[in-house]
Write a structure and sequence with these properties.
468 residues; alpha/beta; three-stranded antiparallel β-sheet; 12 strands
Length: 468
């Protein structure tokens, strides 16, 4: 047997017979075309190399010029038919790689600092173009699409991986506003002041102040949450905002209490002024005398706040025409009352907004998985309809692929979670939209049409973060 071919590091089509006699085959091996080159020429080159499975790869999006990379949109009906016939004649099984340059299916955008619906729709649009291409050229088959759903700390993906020393103790815990899609985070080493003994029943001084404060790290709250079996993000934020909300509530109550007090004084003076004005109509001197006497009977704190200091020039004006001054006091108190109520309302509004924001917060993984699964399921429905419309023999399979180590979906466990959640979402849509009455049938369809593309080359990039 000629074994010279073992001396080379490449596979050649003339090696077929030798490999067959040795009981090995390349039939299960799939190779990808170069995404920056003409796909027809690339397919011919792969056929000449002897492969039986070829992935037609795209890199660019939309109607990008060909010199900047291939896109499904660049290939018209004639070119698609030529690709299909070439594969058919040479008994080649084709799969498709959706544009690698498309954004995340979750809608994650690092530029916007969150998840953006328009970004998700742009990504889904590229995937739909790939579905149309696969239906025309491959007559079905798998479509690989990058799973790059959001940035997350490397240490969250595995015990023996970290992006930098002590990342696990320092990396932020990220969360999302469910309404806006904006991402925020708290570093795990960030310290939160809490009363010793907790917020519920802290030890206090004689004056009523918290006797002693201690500082706890976000990571301490995270550990507590896991021990209690509760969701860490909500638990951390409730403790983080708790003291601010409590202090704000106290301040709002103080403002409201002050406003009530001023309002009572205002109503009293308003009534007094009306009575004295009635007296003035019949007995001006008596009204003047009564006004001074009433003002002198105000509580000391009120008198000092509202009337001029005795002996001052302003006090002389007051003695000369006390009723006019009483009107000025009334107007001043009215303004003070309104301003104090506004301050109380503003404080209360801020509290309610913070509570609302807190109720709208979701852990980033929960939020992103929901968005990703929905996008994959929608693509699955689009592909399912295309199958029926074109009467394809092979199903179109949406196959998310592990890609960047730094993004969720890059770890095998994360990729598996994406597939599981996407299948659930797809099955739900089949039942709701396509009237598949049998849930088991819907789940079977979903399992057949949503699979994974596992790239061992991408897995190898984890080595740079390995600390074992």
């Amino acid at each position: 047997m000629d074994t010279d071919y073992w001396q080379s590091d490449y596979w050649h089509s003339l090696d077929k017979q030798t490999s067959k006699s040795m009981g090995i085959s390349t039939d299960f091996i799939s190779v990808s075309t170069h995404p920056f080159k003409e796909q027809l020429q690339e397919l011919k080159a792969k056929i000449f190399s002897g492969t039986k499975n070829v992935e037609l790869s795209f890199i660019a999006t939309g109607s990008t010029p060909r010199q900047q990379g291939s896109t499904p949109e660049q290939y018209g009906r004639e070119e698609r038919e030529e690709l299909r016939q070439l594969a058919k004649v040479n008994d080649i099984e084709l799969t498709t790689h959706s544009p690698a340059g498309a954004p995340a299916l979750s809608g994650f955008s690092s530029e916007s600092g969150g998840f953006v619906p328009e970004v998700q729709e742009a990504s889904l649009k590229e995937l739909k173009r790939s579905i149309e291409f696969a239906a025309d050229v491959a007559r079905g088959g798998a479509i690989a699409v990058h799973a790059q759903e959001f940035r997350r700390p490397i240490s969250e993906a595995g015990e023996k991986f970290e992006a930098y020393p002590k990342e696990k103790e320092k990396a932020p815990i990220y969360f999302v506003n469910n309404k806006t899609g904006k991402i925020d985070g708290l570093p795990r080493d960030f310290e939160i002041p809490v009363p010793k003994g907790g917020f519920t029943d802290p030890e206090r001084t004689k004056e009523g102040f918290v006797k002693e404060w201690e500082r706890k790290k976000v990571s301490d709250f995270e550990k507590e949450a896991k021990e209690k079996g509760v969701e860490p993000v909500k638990y951390i934020l409730e403790n983080y905002y708790k003291k601010d909300l409590e202090f704000a509530e106290i301040e709002a109550k103080n403002y409201a209490s002050q406003a009530k007090k001023v309002e009572r004084e205002y109503e009293f003076i308003k009534k007094l002024r009306n009575n004295l004005e009635e007296q003035e109509k019949t007995n001006p001197e008596n009204a003047k005398y009564n006004t001074i006497k009433w003002v002198e009977q105000f509580e000391q704190e009120t008198r000092e706040r509202l009337t001029p200091r005795e002996g001052s020039e302003e006090y002389k004006v007051f003695l000369n025409n006390p009723l006019t001054y009483l009107k000025e006091i009334e107007e001043r108190m009215k303004r003070t009352k309104n301003q104090t109520y506004e301050a109380a309302d503003k404080q209360k509004f801020t509290i309610e907004e913070n509570k609302k924001a807190l109720s709208e917060i979701k852990p980033i993984q929960e939020y992103a998985l929901e968005k990703t699964a929905d996008a994959v399921a929608r693509a699955g429905i689009y592909a399912y309809d295309k199958e029926k419309e074109m009467n394809l023999e092979n199903p179109i399979v949406i196959a998310p692929e592990n890609v960047y180590t730094e993004n969720y979906g890059g770890h095998p466990a994360e990729l598996k979670k994406i597939i599981q959640e996407s299948r659930k979402a797809f099955a739900n849509k089949l039942v709701e939209q396509k009237k598949v009455s049998n849930r088991q049938e819907a789940e079977k369809i979903a399992e057949e049409r949503i699979k994974a593309t596992f790239d061992i080359g991408h897995v190898n990039t984890w080595r740079k973060y390995f600390k074992g």
